[in-house]
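Subject: design request, 264 residues
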């Protein structure tokens, strides 16, 4: 693939992966891509744990599923991130950012506006929506041939005031390399993030993966080969939109937004 095609073809995979194990050479290439990222003073503060063991992935999937059920049940998730959620093509066209929930189960559609209200969350609980979503999330994670744990070395992270920014920036660069490389390999990648949102659940993952004290577990990703065709999850979104340059680029000083670069 041409670099530009990889760059603009990169996606987050919301759906299931093929059950096929990820080849050893592809695993090595993904890690080599991560390690080739820039880091402050070439400090390479990142550490990775590559997980293929089924029982461990099933454990991670269980924690992810119950975390999603917990977070959705509490309603805090919607409150926290509602400014990024869109429920119509018009809303998405207006904002050109965020996640457009263009696939929702029939039962939920009447609630799209209400999900941000306590009454809406209450109604979803009665319809056991949090459990259904949690169970679907568990199956999605469990069906992944590989999970990648991403960590930072605490010594690098706590070295000085700016260290945490430099480490997280470097880690972001490393993960973008992994993300781009999945594109080249016909693979997909997605955050396993609900355990981050549910207090206590992340600690369970730290224990499951035996993360030592000098390392900090920063994120978990599920990876695998992407099927040609696959059914979209019951709740699904698209997030291909990007803001036009005039909304995030300035010319010379921040008084003057960039003109003439916006495409129709
Ligand atoms: C810091 C960060 C956190 C993210 N968290 C999640 C997440 O929790 N679940 C998820 O499905 N995608 C997550 N994503 C992926 C974004 O949703 C995705 O990058 C965005 O919607 C744009 O879609 P694209 O990656 O297909 O271009 C995250 C991405 C970043 C950089």
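Subject: RE: design request

Done. Sequence follows.
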């Amino acid at each position: 693939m041409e670099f530009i095609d990889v760059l603009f073809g990169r996606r987050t995979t919301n759906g299931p992966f093929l059950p096929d194990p990820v080849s050893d050479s592809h695993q090595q290439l993904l890690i080599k891509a991560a390690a080739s990222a820039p880091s402050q003073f070439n400090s390479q503060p990142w550490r990775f744990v590559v997980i293929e063991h089924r029982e461990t992935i099933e454990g991670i999937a269980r924690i992810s599923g119950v975390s999603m059920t917990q977070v959705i049940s509490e309603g805090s998730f919607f409150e926290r991130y509602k400014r990024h959620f869109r429920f119509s093509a018009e809303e998405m066209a207006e904002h050109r950012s965020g996640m457009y929930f263009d696939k929702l189960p029939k039962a939920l559609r009447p609630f799209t506006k209400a999900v941000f209200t306590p009454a809406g969350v209450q109604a979803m609980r009665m319809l056991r929506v949090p459990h259904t979503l949690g169970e679907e999330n568990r199956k999605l994670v469990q069906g992944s041939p590989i999970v990648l744990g991403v960590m930072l070395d605490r010594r690098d992270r706590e070295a000085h005031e700016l260290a945490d920014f430099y480490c997280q920036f470097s880690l972001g660069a490393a993960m973008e390399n992994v993300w781009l490389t999945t594109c080249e390999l016909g693979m997909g990648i997605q955050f396993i993030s609900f355990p981050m949102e549910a207090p206590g659940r992340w600690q369970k993952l730290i224990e499951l993966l035996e993360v030592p004290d000098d390392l900090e577990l920063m994120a978990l990703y599920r990876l695998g080969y992407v099927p040609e065709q696959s059914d979209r999850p019951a709740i699904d979104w698209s997030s291909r939109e990007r803001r036009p340059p005039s909304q995030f680029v300035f010319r010379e000083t921040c008084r003057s937004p960039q003109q003439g670069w916006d495409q129709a």
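The pocket of flavin mononucleotide is lined by residues 11-12, 14, 99, 190-191, 193, 239 (CB under 6 Å).
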